[in-house]
Amino acid sequence: MTEQGAAADDTGTPDTATRGTATPGTGTHAPAGTDRATHQAAADAPRVTSKDVARAAGVSQAAVSLVLGDKWRGRVSTAKADAVRTAARELGYRPNLAARSLRLGRTRTALLVVPALTTEFFARVYTGAARIAADTGFGLVLYPSPEGIGPARDPFDSARATLDGVIASSMAADALTALYGEGLPLVMLDSDPHSTPAAATVNLDIAHGARLAAHHLLDLGHRRLTHLAAAVDSWTFHLRARALADTVAAVSGATLAVQAAPLSVDAGLHAAHAALTAPGPRPTALVCDDDLLAAGACKAARRLGLRVPEDVSVTGFDDLALATAVEPELTTVRLPAEEFGAAGMRALIDVLAGRPPAAPTTLPVELVTRGSTAPPPAEPRP
Amino acid sequence: MTEQGAAADDTGTPDTATRGTATPGTGTHAPAGTDRATHQAAADAPRVTSKDVARAAGVSQAAVSLVLGDKWRGRVSTAKADAVRTAARELGYRPNLAARSLRLGRTRTALLVVPALTTEFFARVYTGAARIAADTGFGLVLYPSPEGIGPARDPFDSARATLDGVIASSMAADALTALYGEGLPLVMLDSDPHSTPAAATVNLDIAHGARLAAHHLLDLGHRRLTHLAAAVDSWTFHLRARALADTVAAVSGATLAVQAAPLSVDAGLHAAHAALTAPGPRPTALVCDDDLLAAGACKAARRLGLRVPEDVSVTGFDDLALATAVEPELTTVRLPAEEFGAAGMRALIDVLAGRPPAAPTTLPVELVTRGSTAPPPAEPRP
DNA sequence: ACGTTTCAGTGTTACGTATAACGTGACCCG
DNA sequence: CGGGTCACGTTATACGTAACACTGAAACGT
Predict the structure, then answer these.
(1) Contact status, residue A309 vs residue A322, Cβ threshold 8 Å
(2) Residue of B nearest to A301 (CA)
(3) Quick one: B318 exposed, middle or buried, by C-beta within 10 A (0-12, 13-18, 19+)?
(4) Could you say which residues from 212 to 251 on chain B have a Cβ atom under 8 Å away from some Cβ of chain A?
């Protein structure tokens, strides 16, 4: 599968193999097979160590460490401290993170476990977490789901040695079993606080979002709703289902059916088709667990000759870019994805610093009303 | 672990600080409330080192390193090698990556530089690269764009010390200036092979994709096309523009206008509106630089009372999830995003291993014909 | 004048790994 | 039978950093 690009060679690529690359000293005559010695790809970097800085500044290495570590108050004179700092700057000194990690036993690196990164939602969660990680000098590495990553080794093999802590989405709960008991500080995103032994928890106010969506539709006059539910066994989706059911049940005469589907446009299409063609009175509103399902639902409705929102209303969840790309634009529950990730990272940093983690945070969500919802069609009176 | 209170040795220091060990200065009278010292969140992990394995297996630490590093042929007996391996397994030994990196001067970690991760395309690129990184025991860290990451320090401050190599999208060219000259092996994704000094290059056959889209529309009979061009100064978009212009120019009587827009649904909407309402004969086809622009273009067309594809055809680029979420589904150029990232990672690993990088790869693209393109409306004959 | 505290530093060590350098016997060959 | 090779290991570093333990002075209080 390596040589893939043989097809479509009409590009007229320069076929001359004479590549004027750098790579000096490639032995042209000797094939040599594989050089056992490291072939010196690009190791011309004269590494600058703290000892070099010390020599340049006329102090000891220990003083350099003190000054650069900002622990020199009353230990090093201001003059020498300045000398150290200018020397470090002029030499372009960068501390060797491997050595520091070895010494300190900490790596300032965290792991973010998400079910899948291609999901725009989790890409945004990552972005938010990475932003504040970068601001605080942390690294953030990703573990984007067991099925996405292929048959790799246990990704936590090296975790204990490499990571200071973990932030995990409850949607990746299967991966968590591998972590459990590893003794790593763990921050959970959107998980049942009673079931998971986490050092801290950050939640989105999912139940409130579901209630907002339900109330919106009920207020418009809808009485027959169907919940296009994610076929994912996860806390956040259980919450949505329950909040939806409770809200609908509170309004007399309203019913809530449920149709499960994996999280994709296509699955949404099929599930909505099933819901809209099921025997009995047709639902007038479809409440979907995310925007992909909602987009699929809109397609299904139109294929059945139904107009959105005149004949059937649709709501989504997440407010992805997709929500405004489809027509009509989706009424959806906006989740603060970046802030979600950022809050998770902040909580982890607190835990690592030994600060008592802030009380379990719950981030507010909001209903964005767009064109995919409207009052139900006039009921045919029998 | 010296016996502290044994006797007054040569120093003759009085017992002013008899407990020179942990927690200095804990006043016995103080209730102590919250210890300022590290609060010991979860540090009960009894780290297993190669020395522990050595002791358990009855060999020296060096032998453990040899065996586990698979360099023991003719140096250690099979029996002892087995003993080492079982001891390592039973103790749950995990090599300390920080120590290894310090010793070796390599980290087995690469950096992927992308313009933005929220873009589904680059999320997929990352996924592909991460998959093969995991398979080969590499780490992969992300640098998701200067504007996305906030006012962090130069992310390459620690790069030289932490990274073995870099994979960079040409769309993040501004970030590359910081890298240039750092001496890190660099693999470029989709860049002009003549302009960038990279150790290896992996390209998508973008020009071919653009030609496919243009030919598709020209074959359907379109003669007035407008290119909704990304307002991004990047090699890949220059390529699209040129290939499009060349292909259209080759068909007599066909014209190509250009309308620039940032890469978003909204920008596509506005740009398409401008293109469709510009003075002169209306274009019958809009060729968009990505699917977001195409989705916006569809919205603009419909708001002007034009049907897609009957009145105006639209093509996209990338084949994102969005392409099948909108209606009509988008005719688009599918780019093998995961394979793109994977090829980049493979190339970098080759470079790092000292193997001559495979010839500049060009990955094939393909046109996916869906519902957003059709023959142009019958021309009103004056 | 004398102990004591503070200032301003330096010497040294350990973190855990990989490998070069250094022995051992045992065996083989001339 | 002596030297040389081989098979099998061990000892001893070095990587770069942070922090502990210590040391001269100078300042300070009485």
Answers:
(1) no
(2) B327
(3) buried
(4) none
A128 touching chain B per CB within 8 A: no
**CATH number at A109-205+339-363:** 3.40.50.2300
Alpha-carbon span B255 to B284, nearest angstrom: 11
Q: Specify the pLDDT at position B299.
A: 96
| Rounded Cα–Cα distance for residues A314 and B69 (Å) | 58
Residue of B nearest to A152 (CA): B135
Instruction: Give yes or no for B322 touching A (CB within 8 A).
Output: yes
Contact A102 B123 (CB under 8 A): no
Average pLDDT over residues A360-374: 95
Per-residue confidence at B181, pLDDT binned at 50, 70, 90?
low
**Most confident residue range from A145-149, A360-364, B14-18, B54-58:** B54-58
Mean pLDDT of the region A359-373? 93
Write the Ramachandran bin of A33: left for phi over 0, alpha for psi from -120 to 50, otherwise beta. Answer: left
Mean local confidence (pLDDT), B310-334: 96
pLDDT more than 70, % of chain A? 78
**CATH architecture under which domain B109-204+339-363 falls:** 3-Layer(aba) Sandwich (3.40)
Query: Which B residues, 61 through 120, put their C-beta within 8 Å of a C-beta on chain A?
Result: 94-99, 101-102, 107, 117-120
CATH class for the domain made up of B48-95: mainly alpha
Sequence ranges of the domains in chain A: 50-95, 109-205+339-363, 206-335
Read off the pLDDT of each residue in B55-62 and give the average, rounded to a whole number: 94
**Total residue length of chain A:** 382
Q: Does B152 touch chain A (CB under 8 A)?
A: yes
Strand C proximity list, CB < 7 Å: A 58-63, 66, 74-77, 79-80, 99, 102-103, 105; B 16, 47, 49-51, 61-62, 65-66, 68-69, 71, 93, 95-96, 99-100, 102-104
Residues 4-43 of B with CB under 8 A from A: 34, 37-43
Per-position b or e across B173-211, b if 16+ CB within 10 A of its CB: bebbebbeeeebbbbbbbbeeeebebbbbbbbbbbbbbb
In this prediction, residues B205-232 reach a mean pLDDT of 97
Answer whether A368's CB lies under 8 Å from A336's CB.
Answer: no
Can you name the CATH fold of A50-95?
A: 434 Repressor (Amino-terminal Domain) (1.10.260)
CATH topology identical between B48-95 and B109-204+339-363: no
Give the pLDDT band (50/70/90) at residue B345.
Answer: very high
| C-alpha span between A77 and A66 (Å, rounded) | 11
CB proximity A185 to B under 8 Å: yes
Structure tokens at A227: 């919940």
**B153 pLDDT above the threshold of 70:** no
Over residues A51-79, the pLDDT tens digits come to 999 999 999 999 999 999 999 888 899 99
Q: What fold does the segment set A206-335 form as a domain?
A: Rossmann fold (3.40.50)
